[in-house]
Predict the structure.
Amino acid sequence: MNSGQWHLQPPVELWEDPLVKAYEEIFTFIDFSVLPVPTRGPKRNTLEVYAKVFLIKVHRKIQYSSDLRKFFFDHPQLIPLVGFCPMYHPVTGAVDVEKTVVSARHLRRKLHTIENQHLKRLLKHTVDQLHAKHLLKGTAIADTTEILAWVKENNLKHRVKHRFDKTRTITGFPQCSLGAKPIPGEKDHKGKPKLRYFWGAKQAVLVEPTESGPVFLYEDVFTANTADVKTALPTLKPLVETWAYRLKKFLADAAYDAFEIYQYVYAKETPEPTRKPATAYIALNSRGHTRLNRQFSEHGNLICEADLEMINGGRWFDKNKGYHRQKFN
C-alpha cells in the first residue's frame, strides 16, 4: 500500500483500530443532521465533515492545521469515518489521500469562516439529548479562560514599544483588547496576586460534571477586559431560559461573588415534584479586605471589634444596589 493511496475498501484491521471505534462512538451520539447542508457550490465536503474534523482537533489537542492534516495521513482509517469526499487515482483506482484530505490552508479558512450559530445549534441539540437521557443533574460550573491574539504584543521575546498600553489599537487584530489574569501562587509585596497581561479575548464556559467526565453546556466570548462576574449572567441566562436547562446548583470561584448572581440562581426552581429553589455555591470574595470573625450577642446585635454590643440601626432596601442592608451603630 502506497503512503498516499489506499483501496476503496481498507483492510479489516484498520476498522478494528480502537481510535476508530472511539470516534465512531462519539460521532454516533452527536446528531450532525441539525447542521445546514449547502445548496450551492460544489457538492464536496459538507459542514458535518469539518465539524467532525475540528472535534478531533480539539479532542487530540492539535494546535496547528498542518499537524491536523498530518494526523489524517497517520490514521487514514479515519478519513471515511469523518466523511471526506474521496478522490480516486486515475490509474490505480485507489483513493488518493493527498487529494482527499483538504489542505492545511483550507482547514484554517474553514475554521475562521464557520458561523458560530451553527455550532451553537449542534451544542444545544446535544445538551437536549443528554437531558432526554437523564444524564444531566443540573449542576453548572462557571469559569473563564483567555484567548490569546496571534499578535507580536503577546510575544515577550519581541521588542514592542508601549506593549501593555490599553488605549492602543493592535494592528494585527483591531478587535482584541488588553486583559489580565492572576498568576497562580504568585503575589506582590502587598500580598495581592500578581497579574499577567495579554492581548486577546475572554471565553466564558459552563460545564457539568458527569460520571463519564465533564460535559460542555454553553460558551460565549467577551472582550479581554470584561470582568469574570460580568460574564456569568450572559452565559447562564441563555442556557436556562432559551435552552431550558434545569438548573439545580451553580458553582463558581470568588470572582463570581456578586449579589445579582445569587439573586438569579435562587429565583430558579427545580422541576417537579420537589420545586426547591436552586442553590449557588460561590467562594467568598473579601475584595482585598481582611475577613472579620463576626459575632452576635444574645439579643441578635453585632459585637464590634472592641467587644461591645452594637445597637440595631434598622434594615432597608437599597434601590441603587438592589438588595437589603442592615445598619448597626
Observations:
- Residues 116-132 form the longest helix (17 residues).
- The longest strand covers residues 193-210.
- The radius of gyration is 26 Å.
